[in-house]
Each structure stands twice: as structure tokens, then as C-alpha cells.
Amino acid sequence: MASGVRHDEVKKPDDGLRLDRWFRKHFPALTHGRLEKLLRQGRVRLEGKRVKSAARVVQGQKVRIPPEVLQIPDASAFPISNADDEKFATLAKELHKAILYKDEDILVLNKPSGLAVQGGSKTHIHVDAALPYLKMGAEESPRLVHRLDKDTSGVLILARTRQVAHTLTRYFAAREVDKVYWALVHGVPRPLEGAITDPLIKAKDEDGQEKMHLVSLDEEEAKEAHTDFATMERAAPHLSWVAFRPRTGRTHQIRAHAAAIGHPIIGDGKYRISEKQAGGLLAKKLHLHARSIMMPRLGGKRGYFTCVAPLRSHMAESWDILGFDEASAENPFPDIFR
Questions:
Q1: Which residues contact 60 (CB under 8 A, 6 or more apart)?
Q2: Which tens digits make up the pLDDT trace of 279-335?
Q3: Number of domains the chain contains
């Protein structure tokens, strides 16, 4: 047996899980991309055999865990200190488990759905409030440099120093950061891929609810908005897995643009087109996930930094129900991965 290798037995509650979901449950800091590489190398095995991430584990089987996986720090490696408010300590621990990447400059989280990034008059539990508990040995608290909607899951970057925050803010302002989102939408887009360029403006609708509306660019306060999209897979004529690439960063841009082409995102009560699109078990939560992010490397390093976030639980379950395979997905926007 190789030094440092561990063989974990599959327990009854995990019987039938996909291997990648088993790793997500027991080693949440291991990214999907890294797991795929370890599987290709044969360093992660099931019952001593090479398998793919979609393989199903069975109670009693042994999973080979190489030392590099065991060395990835989890939440227990970063004790929460000075958390006088229990609810923020609990949140901080949850965010520790959601860490996808960490170095001296940034933290990258896989934000869960339902968690606001910043607070408001009725929002007291949010990522911003937990930042002082995410120092992890650094002198400064990490800083927000961009946002995700409360009900959108996925990649969220935090700057670990003031200087890095300034640099990342400049990256976002200059549109040097490329993002790809995954969504489950009503119907099948026609054409299957393309660009949505309708300008947007924030205004109240007839119910008094503030949301983004499509307008002409010559309208006062209209904001340019550009979203590329590509249909990844279809479930009959009723549902589609669509990848979105926002070229601009307007509030609710993807949600408004998806509705604009007649294919609102599942679970999006704000932008659904008709009441017929409101129901169903899948519609209980917004199915929008910030899948990946790419930006120039920090510190004068050449090349680009890329991070990919596995689907969070509610979307992963929907993908299983619909027979979609997260692991086999190809990038529909290859030009952004330089």
C-alpha cells in the first residue's frame, strides 16, 4: 500500500451515490476538475479499479483516497475565533466547507443557494457578515469584489488583502473576468445558441415589484446588456440545460435575458412569463449556478486563473432526475479558456 493512501468504506447512507457526489459529500474542498484528473491518473479507484466519476458506489466497497486529497484542508483546519454570535459562526463553518480554492491572495467559494452575499433591511445572515471569521490566519478579513443573487449558487471570489481587492475590482470593471453560468430553463431555445443583446433598465412593474425590464438603448437610463447562450442538453420539449456567458454585468441580467427569449429559468418567480411556469417540484428553488470563472493571474504572473464550481445539492438532484451528466459536460465557449 502506498504511503499516506487511505481506503474508505462506503457506508449504507451513501449506497448508490455517484462517485463524484460521494467525494463532494466527504471531501467538499476537492474540486470536480481535480477529482477528474485523479481518476484519469488512477490515483482514485473504486475496489482497486479505474472508474469514472459517474460510477455508482455500493455499500461495503472501498474507495482509494490518495494523500493529496487527504491533505486538502477542511473547515476543522481553520478554527473559527471570536465568533460571539453563534449564527455567524455556523455560517462561517458552512462557508469553510464551501471553499474551492485558497491562496495568499484569494478565497473562492461555492456559494449555496439561498444565502445573500450582502445584507439589507430584512437580511441579517449573509456572506459579508461572516467575513471576519474567514481570515484563516491572515491579518485582514477577506473582501467582497463581486456579487451573486441570493438564490444563485456557485463561484464567489473573495480578496484576502486590500491591494488584491483593488486589482480584482479593476478586473471586473474592465470586463477582464469571464463567467459561465448553468441554468435549467423552460422549453428549448431556438436557435439552440446565440446572443441576447436587449438593453435593460430597473423599474417597478404593475405589482410594484422592482425588476429589470427590456427597453430600447435610446431610452433614458437604459443599460447595454449582452449575454451569450448555448443549449447543453434537452429533457423532451419541456426543459433545457443552458449555459450562459454574460459579457456585461447588469443586475439579474441572465434571468431577464432568459425570460426575454421565452425561456425563463426554473424556479424564477420574478421573471417567469406565465403562471403555468410556476409549479412543479423542480421549481421550488432557482436553478441558476455560477459554474466557472476565469481571470488574469494575480501578482504579475502570466496566464489565467480558472475555477469551476460543482453543482450545489438542489441542482445536482435535478440533473440526476433529468438524466443530465455534469461530469461529461463540454465547455460551449472554448474561446474564454485561453
A1: 9, 10
A2: 466 778 999 999 999 999 998 888 999 999 999 999 999 999 999 999 888 889 977
A3: 1
- pLDDT one-digit tens code per residue, 252-266: 999 999 999 999 999
Range of the domain at 37: 6-70
Is pLDDT of 275 > 60?
A: no
The DSSP element (H or E) to which 39 belongs, if any, is helix 32-41
Pull the grid cell for residue 129: 457578515
Residue 32 sits in a domain whose CATH number is 3.10.290.10
**Nearest residue to 312 (alpha-carbon basis) of 156, 178, 105:** 156
Q: Which residue is catalytic, options 14, 20, 149, 198?
A: 149
In a domain, 145, yes or no: no
Question: What is residue 319's DSSP assignment?
Answer: H
54 occurs within a structural domain:
yes
Residue 85 is a catalytic residue: no
What's CA 73's distance to the chain center, in Å?
Answer: 20
**Residues 58 and 69: beta-carbon distance below 8 Å:** no
What pLDDT, in 10s, does the model give residues 43-90?
999 999 999 999 999 999 999 999 888 766 554 444 454 444 667 778
CA atoms of 151 and 156, how far apart (whole Å): 13
Burial 242-274 (b: 16+ CB within 10 A, else e): bbbbbeeebebbbbbbbbbbebbbbbbebbbee
**Does residue 164 sit within a domain?**
no
Q: Which of 284, 288, 258 is nearest to 187 (CA)?
A: 258
CB atoms within 10 A of CB 39: 21
Kindly state whether residue 25 falls inside one of the protein's structural domains. Answer: yes
